[in-house]
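HUMAN: Ready with one sample?

ASSISTANT:
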Amino acid sequence: MPDPLDPVAALRRIAFLLERRLADSYRIKAYRGVAAALLTIPPDEVAARSRAGTLRDLPGVGAKTAGIVADCVAGTVPAYLTELERTAGPLAEGGAEVRAALRGDLHSHSDWSDGGSPIEEMAMTAVELGHDYLVLTDHSPRLRVANGLSVERLRRQLEVVDAVDAHLGGGFRLLRGIEVDILEDGELDQTDEMLAALDVVVASVHSKLRMESAAMTRRMLAAVRHPRTDVLGHCTGRLVTGGRGTRPRSTFDAEAVFTACAEHQVAVEINSRPERRDPPDDLVAVALEAGCLFSVDSDAHAPGQLDFLAHGAARVEELGVPVDRVVNSWPIDRLLEWSNR
């Protein structure tokens, strides 16, 4: 009889592959929920329940997930997993060498704000993808629609981040971060004390994206000049495709903003989400000419979306961005020396 396979690993892999293709979140939640439930049950009991047909007595286990577990217990790779692997393919054409050079990701979200998975699941997946580091950057308090973190919640989160980082070890680092909202006056939506406690600060505009160009320029310049800003996130806010529809890009004086980024060593984010592709190609060219650093980030809201770095890597190759100017191609010591500048 074939050796049993790990049903938890199979369920997590299915969820990962669905996430990287932006499948419906309710389906993904079902697979991750069952995987989490099975972790609390001894493997022998899982196998016994599967053979006895009582797995569906457990909360959240349906016919499809029970069938996947049954296949694993029998030593058979589930057909659904086989099909997902067969059709997964590369996410982007080109960029393989750039992707191999990326050591980590400076922009990711957990279920503490508007992500779909716990911090530890995001970190474990980053390890499995071969990252050296991952920065957790949940939202700041003004972004209530994304369950942004108050000062007190952020303090508690940092304790969890430190605990997960210590537990994982093995050369991987989970770093403290935030995606802080750039307010209308250019101030950052978190206290200076809390920003000083972080390893990486990504500053992004999320509101009033259609602000008049001169006002948006002043807003962004103030944020770039803030001494705690490390990365300027998805700078135009555009959406080019996807379930949220499309959205035009914000207008601002790109030469002025990117010149300030270069002067203050703030990295311009190349956001790898396929619905964003932000900045547009013409603005990447302006940033290159200005001498900017870049950060190729997934902006992942689920573990499988950490693989979105492939999209950004392909753009880096296509647009001729030198890899050494991509801060997350740097080893951890160099990255932290830059972010603590």
